[in-house]
Amino acid sequence: MPENCCVQMKNIVKQYGGVYALKDGCIRLEKGQIHALMGENGAGKSTMMKVLSGAIQRDGGEIYIDGAAVDINSPLDSKRLGISIVYQEFVLAPDLTVAENIYIDHLTGTRGTLINWRSLNRKAQLLLDSLSFSNIKAGTQVGRLSVAYQQVVEICKSLSRNTKVLVLDEPTAVLTFNEIEKLFELLETLKRQGVCIVYVSHRMEEIFRICDKVTILKDGEFIGEHNIADITKEQLINSMVGRELKDLFPRGERIEPGGEVLRVENLSSGAMVNNVSFSLREGEVLGVYGLVGAGRTEAMQAVYGAAKRDGGTVAFRGKPAAFKSPGHAVRAGLGMLPEDRKAQGVLLKQSIRVNTTISRMGAVCNTGGFLKKRQEAKMVRELLDELSVRYADIENDVSSLSGGNQQKVSIAKWLFSQCSCIIFDEPTRGVDVGAKVEIYKIINKLVTQGVGVIVISSEMLEIIGICDRVVVMQGGAVTGELSGGDITESNLIRLAMGIQSC
Amino acid sequence: MEYSTIIMLVVLIVVSSLISDKFFTLGNILNLLRQNVGLVVMSMGMLFVILTGGIDLSVGAMSAFGSVIVATCLVSFGFGTVISIVVAVLSGMVLGLFTGLLVAYVKMAPFIATLSMMTISRGFAYMISNGSPIQTPIGTMNVIGTARVGVFPALILFAAVVVAIFFIVHKYTAFGRIVIAVGSNSQAVQLAGIQIKRYLVVVYAISGLCAAMAGVVSATRTYIGSPSIGTSMELDAIASVVIGGASLSGGRGFVLRTVVGVIILGLISNIMNLVGVPPYPQEVIKGLIIIAAVCVQGFTKRTV
């Protein structure tokens, strides 16, 4: 074991009722390094990190911290050993302040039974300042912060405890350009301080930018560890899935766009949407790009009827369509896949069957409102097979599916509703490489059938890869529109930051 | 896996039969069922409200309201039996509709909205009856209360029909499914294009209807319409629904198991009466058994 090694996990096994989430999980972490952990969903990455952080207990294998074998039976054990984890879904209390959240498990300090608010807020602000985030104030309610800043608070929580190992699970999924840059600066600072960082992510460009090493898992097994400098992106992907890089963004055969499906003019809604205009034709994939806070989701929610419109017009299939609620939109043929899959996109505790048919129940009921269950089951199974959803039984809860398959069920709902236009808000967020490709193929198929598709995305490669046209938003307004060969990284960024493109 | 409620019932039946030989007689069982017809009907309405993640504290007061309305129609207005019952039931539905509007459109918390309706309904009941019970004429309520089909009291069959209707709606209709979905995640259901406000209003209207019906049932057994009945009956209804495996946060609940919950509650009182437990300790024991029943529910849910 090298001198610098602070954590080693060997042959970790974890099973859930006969199914192995991990068969041979291994990783070797060194101080002052950023170590990427990659693998498809279901490969065992989150399981392995949960074992390390004490959230679950391993069934077999060993863990060594600084050379000594340890047993991590609870999150408290791992915290004491200096391990911290920041999950994709934050565990913050939105009604409490930043300082309260950071020091949530040691509010009263090392002595005393009463909280010293002045000292608590001061310590918290010092911590934030030292990480160059002084614009976050320690007394702000966390629920009012943007998602990106909430993540900074989460990281501070870990840092307030003298962390040796910091695990970040898909940290940039909810960040955009500027924030990602700041996060990377923060990680470099921590690296210099000797912290070991585990970077669990699907984002190739980022991994190649800041990580030193990468460990690959596949189907619960350790495949290999490499220095980033010694491996190429193609080789990485091949060892993860065996697929070639060029297949990552299949475009398929695009048809000639047809008639206009949606026309939005001078849309304004609340504080976030000021002046948005765009149009969409049948058979087109329109991308909506922008930095966080640009108002993309809010604009589409206003079109869909999920948020109040203050001004502007929306025309759907040529007719004025001032949708007052999502119900009106769905009836007209417009569907929207929300950004937050778990809270808004699916009903986690309901069955796959219920989730698939809920937007068009008329199709599976007779006139009395009675369900035609057998017919429904048939239709649902056909649709799920068409979308290559991996499931055991349509009666199982959606929560039993992996993230990618949950997203496909969310998409299945709109396909079942026979929409002529679907808005996808971050369709591949938190979805593994394999399922991402399948979702792009689904989008391709939709447009060849004449459906109009809007894709809100923060991933530039995704936008460039699958969109025919792109509108870019900044500060609640559309700053520009790109099509065909003009859709380039530099054009997208310049428009997103409000710099006029030539 | 979902048999915990039934197992509890079987255990209680066995224990009761061992404790008292008067328990497992046709007369006692029929009596037990007959006494709980009102609560069964009320619990059906409560179940649907709880499925949406809400609660209805007004049902006890609304049953008093229903019993007073039916008696007043018979006595003061001289309406026929059927019409009086229909008026009473519809009045309950109207009050429930108002509650539903408060919850769905004014966006009041169900606890507060139904707490207020509880006081209002009780007030109406006292106002209409002038504070005293109203004797219903011979040949009206007593006919229904004593009617039999073979050996079974008509009231029990009526309860069975009501339960069957709710069972079918819960399991086999789009309405039932959406009610469950709304309680499971109302935001996601709304974004899926469903107008959830309508479903909320209907669910509280149904609860009001069932509560008033329970009041009418009470009138058929006591032959009077009384403004003071049903106090804390809403708690029995909630307990039955929860013993039947429902989640108070919504999205989960069962018709038949709620009925078993009602029977379990009734059985506890029944056996304690047969054995001669004084009334005050009965309340303590009943509460403890409810705690035990819900714990068993919670335990089996976690192991599933």
Brief summary of the model shown:
The complex is a heterodimer of chains A (502) and B (304). With 502 residues, chain A is α/β, with parallel strands linked by helices.
Helices and strands, with pairings:
The complex is a heterodimer of chains A (502) and B (304).
Chain A: E1 5-16, E2 19-30, E3 34-38, H1 45-53, E4 60-65, E5 68-70, H2 75-80, E6 83-86, H3 98-102, H4 117-130, H5 147-159, E7 165-169, H6 177-192, E8 196-200, H7 204-210, E9 213-218, E10 221-227, H8 233-240, E11 260-269, E12 273-281, E13 285-290, H9 296-304, E14 311-316, E15 319-320, H10 326-332, E16 334-337, H11 341-345, H12 352-357, H13 373-386, H14 403-416, E17 421-425, H15 433-448, E18 452-456, H16 460-466, E19 469-474, E20 477-483, H17 489-496
Parallel strand pairs in A: 3-8, 3-9, 6-7, 7-8, 13-18, 13-19, 16-17, 17-18
Antiparallel strand pairs in A: 1-2, 1-4, 4-5, 9-10, 11-12, 11-14, 14-15, 19-20
Chain B: H1 4-19, H2 26-35, H3 37-51, H4 59-75, H5 81-104, H6 110-129, E1 134-135, H7 141-146, E2 148-149, E3 152-153, H8 154-172, H9 174-184, H10 186-191, H11 196-222, E4 224-225, H12 233-243, H13 255-275, H14 279-303
Antiparallel strand pairs in B: 1-4, 2-3
Helix pairs in contact in B: 1-13, 3-8, 3-11, 3-12, 3-13, 4-5, 4-6, 4-11, 5-6, 5-11, 8-9, 9-11, 12-13, 13-14
The percent of residues in helical segments of chain A reads: 25-40%
Query: How is the CATH topology of the largest domain in chain A named?
Result: Rossmann fold
By CATH, the superfamily of the largest domain in chain A comes out as P-loop containing nucleotide triphosphate hydrolases
* Low-pLDDT windows of residues of chain A: none
Count of domains of chain A = 2
Structural class of chain B: mainly alpha
Assembly level: heterodimer
Tally of domains of chain B? 1
Shape annotation of chain A: globular
